[in-house]
Design brief:
about 525 residues; alpha/beta; Aldehyde Dehydrogenase, Chain A, domain 1; seven-stranded mixed sheet; six-stranded mixed sheet
Length: about 525
């Protein structure tokens, strides 16, 4: 994911473009250039005050049973669904995605997350018994305790779901949330906060939004939240990790992706081609798990490439506010359009061929397919985050796997094959946080399954039991089972006789003799 929000102690590139004092953020429709609205930038003092008020609200929220918390979050879900068309319209205006994508990729998964948490959060966060080995005279369990205030710094490509999905998980676990959206798409989260405040039973200070540029993100971390969740580019993610490390604040980072798609020699051409087109051009390719490189077996490469080119020619592109019959709309961030053009120029200069697309009109960039690519080209090695799908022909599936793993990123990957068992075997060899066989994108929509990356694609996981528990401290509680004595045998005073007894016990328990084996089997 590219860097739009720079979390540093210095003025960001985005902030520097604002003339004079940057007291407001102006939001524009990328399709038309129309000014949609403005929001005030939160000062350092305001950020600190927001975190402090969130901390007070969290103390009361954490005392509620988990079941009660999730019931209240369902009210928020219902309010979001009731005002769904309002949210979809604003998303399509500010973010540039089609209304289908705004509904299916943003509103729907937020509602699904709330539903999942209402059904499973109480069980996931219930105390877990620990089976003890030697210490049978004691009992132990794990308690999941809310961290406190969670700071969420979210991106511009999916401003609703990537903000509120993490928010709902954090709130269900008993935390408060202070959220900083990207300065590129500030209005969507202002709308979410408005809906939250209007929903009965939800404390206003429990979920708050601060607006601003990179400095605001830095101020938020400086305000000492108890956890930070950041979604964005690798470079900024490293800065966030460094700031959190200095303050010993735990963080979850969901960073860039360079998802490979391996098309095996037995892949179904039609399904694979449609998966590539959807996986490569949804949201104009501005998805961290977009299909960003295709490794097609020589047996299917040419037919697959031609079918993809044919399908791309059928895509309808335009302003999402003028029609529902659109497939692709505008890109969101002007600087990202420049990045896309540089990738295409590099590929062409090194011998690749643009089969379709490669042109722009304002913020609209034509879906682009490039053939004859290799790992000397940036389209195959660097994150694109735009509507480009590069093809590379490979002689074998082993070669495809080797190229897929030849990346500093590892978020998502895709395998298309008629043999599901082969698909599983290949998936297990690809270095990525998630590998999907014969489909694209679906894993992120599955609230039950953890999502995150390996290598420089991030740290930690969101979603699923692992993601929910990450918003908690794990407390080990250990209690005596049968009453106590005046002192334990291992306590003072130490004596020569006691040492000899302990020596024999260690040998009996852990040595190579038959007694050790029998005791080991029992324990």
């Amino acid at each position: 994911m590219p860097d739009a929000t720079q979390v540093t102690r210095f003025t960001s590139s985005a902030e520097a473009t604002v003339s004079g004092v940057s007291s407001q953020i102006e939001s524009r429709n990328p399709a038309t250039g129309e000014v949609l609205g403005r929001v005030p930038v939160s000062s350092t003092e305001e950020v600190r005050a927001v975190v402090a008020s969130a901390r007070r609200a969290q103390e009361a929220w954490a005392l509620l049973p988990i079941e009660e918390r999730t019931v209240r979050l369902l009210r928020f879900r219902n309010a979001i669904v009731d005002r769904g068309e309002e949210i979809v319209e604003l998303l399509s205006q500010e973010n540039g995605k089609t209304r289908h994508e705004s509904l299916l990729f943003e509103v729907f998964p937020v509602a699904e997350v709330a539903t999942y948490l209402s059904k499973h959060a109480a069980e996931i966060l219930s105390p877990q018994r620990v089976t003890l080995g030697l210490a049978k005279y004691r009992t132990a369990y794990l308690q999941y305790v809310p961290r406190g205030v969670v700071a969420i710094i979210s991106p511009w490509n999916f401003p609703f779901v990537l903000s509120l999905g993490d928010t709902l998980f954090a709130l269900a676990a008993g935390n408060a949330v202070v959220l900083k959206p990207s300065e590129v798409t500030p209005l969507v989260l202002a709308k979410a906060k408005e809906i939250w405040d209007a929903t009965a039973g939800l404390p206003r200070d429990l979920f708050q939004v601060v607006q601003g540029y990179g400095k605001t993100g830095s101020d938020l971390i400086d305000a000492q939240p108890d956890m930070v969740v950041f979604t964005g580019g690798v470079a900024t993610g490293k800065r966030v990790a460094a700031m959190c490390g200095e303050r010993l604040i735990p963080c979850t980072l969901e960073l860039g992706g360079k998802a490979p798609l391996i098309a095996c020699e037995d892949a179904d051409i039609e399904r694979t081609a449609r998966g590539i087109v959807f996986g490569g051009f949804a949201n104009s390719g501005q998805i961290c798990i977009s299909v960003e490189r295709v490794y097609a077996h020589a047996q299917v490469h040419d037919r697959l490439l031609e079918r993809v080119v044919g399908l791309v020619s059928e895509l309808r592109q335009g302003d999402p506010m003028t029609s529902l019959d659109l497939d692709v709309s505008a890109m969101t961030f002007d600087k990202q359009v420049d990045v896309v053009e540089k990738h295409i120029a590099d590929a062409k200069q090194k011998g690749a061929v643009v089969r379709t697309g490669g042109t722009r009109k304002g913020m609209f960039f034509a879906p682009t397919v490039i053939a004859g690519c290799n790992h000397d080209m940036t389209v195959m090695t660097e994150e694109i985050f735009g509507p480009i799908v590069p093809f590379m022909k490979v002689a074998s599936e082993d070669e495809a796997i080797a190229h897929a793993n030849d990346s500093h990123l590892g978020l998502n990957a895709y395998v298309f094959t008629a043999d599901r068992e082969k698909g599983r075997r290949i998936a297990e060899r690809v270095l990525a946080g998630s590998v999907v066989v014969n489909d694209v994108f679906v894993n992120y929509a599955m609230a039950e399954a953890p999502f995150g990356g390996v290598k420089q694609s991030g740290i930690g996981r969101v979603h699923g039991p692992e993601g929910l528990r990450s918003f908690c401290h794990v407390k080990h509680v250990n209690v005596d089972r049968f009453g106590t004595m005046d002192r334990e045998p291992t306590w003072y005073p130490f004596t020569k006789g006691a040492y000899g007894g302990f020596q024999k016990a260690v040998r009996a328990l852990f040595g190579g003799g038959s007694l050790a084996k029998r005791l080991g089997d029992l324990l």
